[in-house]
Amino acid sequence: MKVIHNMTIHLLLAMIGTFVVIVGAQTQEGFISLDCGLPVEESPYDDSFNGLTFTSDSAFIQTGKSSRVDRSIILSKQYLTLRYFPEGKRNCYNLDVKRGTNYLIAVSSVYGNYDGLNLDPSFDIYIGPNKWISIDLAGRQNGTLDEIIYKARSNSLDICLVKTGATLPIISAIEIRPLRNNTYVTKSGSLRLSYRVYLNNSNGFIRYPDDVRDRIWDPFFGSSYTQITTNLDVNNSNAYEIPKTALQSAAIPKNASGPLVIIWKPKPSNAQVYLYMHFAEIQTLGPNERREFDVILKGNFNHSGFSPTKLKVFTLFTEEPMKCDSEGCRLELIKTPKSTLPPLINALEAYTVIEFPQLETSLSDVDAMKNIKVTYRVSKISWQGDPCLPKDWSWENVNCTYVDLATPPRINSLNLSKSGLTGSISPALQNLTQLQELDLSNNNLTGPVPSFLASMKTLSLILEGNPDLCKTSLCNPTKKKKFLLPAIASAASLLVIIVVVVALIFIFRKKKVPSDQHAPSPPSVPVTDIGNNSQSESSFLSTKIRFTYLEVQEMTNKFERALGEGGFGVVYHGCVNGTQQVAVKVLSQSSSQGYKHFKAEVELLMRVHHINLVSLVGYCDEGDHLALIYEYMPNGDLKQHLSGKRGGFVLSWENRLKIAVDSALGLEYLHTGCIPPIVHRDIKTTNILLDQNFQGKLADFGLSRSFPTGNETYVSTVVAGTPGYLDPEYYQTNWLTEKSDIYSFGIVLLEIITNQPIIQKSREKPDLVEWISSMITKGDIKSIMDPNLHQNYDIGSVWKAIEVAMSCVSPSSIRRPNMSRVVNDLKECLLSENSRTGESRDVESKGSMEFSRGIYTEVIPKAR
Ligand SMILES: *[C@@H]1O[C@H](CO)[C@@H](O)[C@H](O)[C@H]1NC(C)=O
Ligand SMILES: *[C@@H]1O[C@H](CO)[C@@H](O)[C@H](O)[C@H]1NC(C)=O
Ligand SMILES: *[C@@H]1O[C@H](CO)[C@@H](O)[C@H](O)[C@H]1NC(C)=O
Ligand SMILES: *[C@@H]1O[C@H](CO)[C@@H](O)[C@H](O)[C@H]1NC(C)=O
Ligand SMILES: *[C@@H]1O[C@H](CO)[C@@H](O)[C@H](O)[C@H]1NC(C)=O
Ligand SMILES: *[C@@H]1O[C@H](CO)[C@@H](O)[C@H](O)[C@H]1NC(C)=O
Ligand SMILES: *[C@@H]1O[C@H](CO)[C@@H](O)[C@H](O)[C@H]1NC(C)=O
Ligand SMILES: *[C@@H]1O[C@H](CO)[C@@H](O)[C@H](O)[C@H]1NC(C)=O
Ligand SMILES: *[C@@H]1O[C@H](CO)[C@@H](O)[C@H](O)[C@H]1NC(C)=O
Ligand SMILES: *[C@@H]1O[C@H](CO)[C@@H](O)[C@H](O)[C@H]1NC(C)=O
């Protein structure tokens, strides 16, 4: 038995001669190896011990100063220089990475009395907006090396050093290695290394080139172990690519009938732990010999009857994070009665989970700010790292909107007054789509005020004190005063309206000779395209579904009965031809935004027809009066029913599933039945309406977009939708695809299942998705379900529905199913619920179903 203390590895002394290096045998593909503070003229060089090619860090950071350590002990070359940061609270490296790739990130710092003060620094390191680690170099003459496995959230990675006290942050080396995406996968968070060892009683560590991923393997051996080794080649081909040299030795217990035990204390003691165990049989077994043992992690799992493969690696790892008790984590390998040989283990890695909950500032804002920074050569020391986060060190002269950790902040104001700006107004500003205030006063800007500024509705723009700006006809010649842009804005929006109307005329003309309503329509003019100007008529052309305002007044009996109020106006009850009931949405005339949505909706509903989409009866477009006339849905919306606001009767599980299938069919039609496909963008329970038979239909197409072509994604300039239902990936990247609807639909399903608010502060986990995940982990299904259902449901169909919903709300869009898949799965749920109805079955007996938990084996071994 042996206790491993949770070691922060410090291996910085070069271990000369402990292993032979085959320089150049491997590729170092995707490696980033920075020797911080290295003068550019000495860059790059190959490390003489391991052949890694190091470069100077100067291209990746604009701040800080270089220095050399004062030490007589021989260090690896990369620790001889360092970068320190006398200015600014936060200084950041910015590195190019690949979004979605899992990286091993290692940062090392060796103080080496570079400043002659003999004061060991302490400081913090952040990854993007999230704190990774506090470094304290007191008593660490050999420096520190900290490692993490982190999945890149964008194509750019910020590693920031933050001053926390009197001493200056320092950094010696940054090493980044891409890992295979299918390795070291966590349920959430990143992995901080506890230890990574191979069982050998030598004292040499292993890293690149033996390890193609350049992980550092320390030797580890207990006094109660016996070492076995082989000279034969061990096949290391599995996803983890364990170095062969690490597999060629193993430990067995000295007492051949006793267990092999490894104990360690994770930090913090309640941390979630992931363990990766690598086994290979490296002894030649006789005909009657057999090695078989149980792998037991106390309190977490028991994998019985494991037999290592001959000269071939086999990796066992925890798929779910495990928790160890106050005595620490305890791994036991126990020989089974059948076995003639003691258990063995070759290599072992343990990690603890570190959560990085704060999402970065919206990617499009970050890109725009970087662009602006470069264009105007802004050299403010605070303009490094994430512009909005952490709040305390957000960029000077930039203000942001913050919602919660899971919502990327957005930039809402920018003050570049007196910043010495020259040249024209950067088009990158238009990508700051949430900007409310922009102060460019007192610079030397030239050229015209671009029209995009005018189309940013709520923007307050200050341009005074730029003598050479604003010489075009559009501009206001009096530039003494701060001027807001309503004039230009309305001119521009008029232009937008005109173009849109032209576009609609074009579309409607095409629609005038429809042969088959269900045939795919020709691609429409992209409605967002404010292309070339042309002369136009002032209203929609007439069609038979067009109503006058007088007719609208008549059909609603002078707006007698309001049914509800939506985002863009009030909905009234009405009657056409004295018989057909309709719902009339009267748009508030004020916003041109409203007009845009009005137009989008008319266009869309004219070309799509489906039983599960609310159909358009007509519209009114007369001067200021805009109205949409839909078929009447007597049973209101799904939300009202779930919340009991409709007479208090409870929708049965079966009914809920039916409505879910209906809405899924409507959405499937938009995604796959329409050419080009349509993204609804505002799927939510209030937009699912119910007809007299409780058939569900999707409504409110005001935000819908169709794609220019088939499978392409679409970058929209304004993220739209309803908070809570909004796809976080879309929100962050502005990349709009059908998958965003699928996310929203997943939220709807979760509401149908739980009848819980999407966000509820008083809940253990305020976020519905997180809350459900935690309940699922506990296997606690009854507390997930809407209590109003009184457990009157088929538990199998419930599980299935939860599974579908959870896959829809996967943070990564590629993991979400498509709508056809969702439809099929929901139909299955409905079938299994239907088969229950009428039968009396013991619901309780099936209530204990659990998601599979525990150890995962990389290739499934059959228990023998
Ligand atoms: C990991 O996944 C990302 C995105 O899914 C991909 O771009 C990258 O190439 C993958 N990396 C590796 C090493 O497989
Ligand atoms: C630094 O490394 C040397 C050589 O391995 C070792 O003797 C010494 O104890 C280490 N110092 C610390 C503080 O770990
Ligand atoms: C493991 O131990 C054996 C015997 O002690 C030694 O020959 C071998 O070099 C060691 N392996 C490594 C990678 O150091
Ligand atoms: C190693 O094992 C893999 C399959 O597990 C096999 O495809 C490969 O050929 C083996 N390599 C050697 C050198 O035997
Ligand atoms: C060896 O282990 C077995 C089983 O745990 C135990 O019964 C026995 O006493 C141990 N022998 C020695 C010498 O420790
Ligand atoms: C592990 O599982 C095996 C077989 O299921 C059983 O014999 C053994 O007692 C279990 N050990 C522990 C510690 O639960
Ligand atoms: C922008 O900063 C300047 C000082 O540099 C200040 O005078 C001005 O009021 C600021 N503008 C806004 C809109 O806050
Ligand atoms: C940001 O907010 C602060 C405090 O609310 C305010 O003083 C400052 O003027 C704002 N900055 C900009 C650029 O608007
Ligand atoms: C705005 O953002 C889009 C998408 O990120 C990008 O392609 C475009 O170049 C940006 N525009 C400017 C002017 O930076
Ligand atoms: C603008 O440029 C002129 C000369 O090119 C210079 O004298 C003046 O100070 C500049 N103004 C600002 C506000 O930078």
From TrEMBL:
**Cellular compartments annotated:** Membrane
Q: Quote any Pfam family the record assigns.
A: LRR_1
Gene3D superfamilies documented for this protein = Phosphorylase Kinase, domain 1 (3.30.200.20), Ribonuclease Inhibitor (3.80.10.10), Transferase(Phosphotransferase) domain 1 (1.10.510.10)
* Residues annotated as signal peptide: 1-25
**Which GO molecular function terms does the record list?**
ATP binding; protein serine/threonine kinase activity
Name the GO cellular-component terms: membrane
Bilayer-crossing regions = 483-508
PANTHER family for the chain: LEUCINE-RICH REPEAT PROTEIN KINASE FAMILY PROTEIN, OS07G0107800 PROTEIN-RELATED
**Protein name (Swiss-Prot/TrEMBL):** Protein kinase domain-containing protein
Highest classification ranks of the organism: Eukaryota, Viridiplantae, Streptophyta, Embryophyta, Tracheophyta
